[in-house]
Amino acid sequence: MRFAPLPAGLPASVPFIGPETLERQRGAPFAARLGANESAFGPSPLAARAMREAVGQVWKYGDAPSFDLTHALADHHRMSPANIMVGEGIDGLLGTLVRLMIAPGDAVVTSDGAYPTFNYHVAGFGGALHKVPYRNDAEDPEALLDRAHATGARLIYLANPDNPMGSWHDGPVITAILDRLPDDCLLVLDQAYAEFAPASALPDIAADDPRVIRMRTFSKAYGLAGARIGYALGAPELIAGFDRIRNHFGVNRLAQAGALAALADQGWLAHVVAEVAAARDRIAAISAANGLSALPSATNFVALDTHRDGTFARALIAALAGQGVFARMPGVAPLDRCIRISCAPLHELDVFEDVLPRALSVLATR
């Protein structure tokens, strides 16, 4: 089989191996699914009902511009519908953005250890990735800007709050980046975890600011990860560019119905945010009882410092999986001294509390 030159030169890999694949490999389901930062607290009951009611209309393609949802989001964010693009989750939107903005060889700057799906898209469209290290377990705006100026980058990727460490910068730090961007450079601000963040972490950015595009999702706090739906906020000229190349029917009818109902149910969102805060405290207590340290988090997961190295952390992830707990970890030193545990309901955290000391004891005997 002869592929086109660009994909032919890429490795046959995916950014993440999903938990279902891992369950098939181990021949058993996980007792606790704590590795994908989904919301095991579930979607709004109103969203679930809206999706059930939409099933009878699933023979129809989804509304290509996601008109109702786009206008509801515009009201929610107090901006024009022209500032909003709905897509197949942040992953899908990132892929379309990179295709829209990056020609083969164009420089793109990110942090070494940050969200790998973005890197996957950049490589897939021939961009040249330039990475800078984290600083104090957080992405380093100064280093990102320095590298962007040195390389003439067209995109800078920054997640705030951050995945995989859960750290965050206050809003003025983000807005200061905009004033120092190189010419013809766009800040890609991934706000997948914005609903869990303190208000101080959300920068005050004008809807029409052409220097930044913000990515939001219904996968995390709204509990619709399996529906694959998210949205971008940006200047109208940039948002309109998506229509040139996007998959116009990529957002299915059920996802649109669920997201519209979820957005309207802010009471359920508040409930989930409170459950996540309690789960973060529980994870921190479990980790402390076992000699690990919980890093501060503004997300729906907690990075736990093992106080060892990546080899130990990888062995701990494997030991947890062997006893039925799916977890993940950062992939780059020194971040990879940590493991990452998603917030979850009590019964799953009970499993984690039971399994963690046994997994650690297995490693202690090696």
What characterizes the major β-sheet? 7 strands, mixed
Cα-to-Cα separation, first versus last residue = 45 Å
- Average residue pLDDT: 97
Low-confidence stretches: none
Give the topology string: H per helix, E per strand: HHEHHEHEHEHEHEEEHHHEEHEEH
Strands of the largest sheet, in order across it? Answer: 2-8-7-6-5-3-4
Helix content: 40-55%
Number of strands: 12
Number of helices: 13
Categorize the overall geometry: globular
What multimeric state do the chains show? single chain
Structural class: alpha/beta
User: What proportion strand?
Assistant: 5-15%
Compute the CA-based radius of gyration.
20 Å
Task: Describe the 3D structure.
The chain is of the alpha/beta class and 366 residues long. The chain contains 13 helices and twelve strands. It starts with a helix and ends with a helix. The relative contact order is 0.17.
Strand and helix layout:
Blueprint: H1 5-8, H2 19-26, E1 32-33, H3 45-54, H4 67-77, E2 84-87, H5 89-101, E3 107-111, H6 116-124, E4 128-132, H7 141-151, E5 155-159, H8 171-178, E6 186-190, E7 212-217, E8 230-233, H9 236-242, H10 253-264, H11 266-289, E9 293-294, E10 301-305, H12 310-322, E11 325-326, E12 338-342, H13 346-364
Parallel strand pairs: 1-11, 3-4, 3-5, 5-6, 6-7
Antiparallel strand pairs: 2-8, 7-8, 9-10, 10-12
Helix pairs in contact: 3-10, 4-10, 5-6, 11-13, 12-13
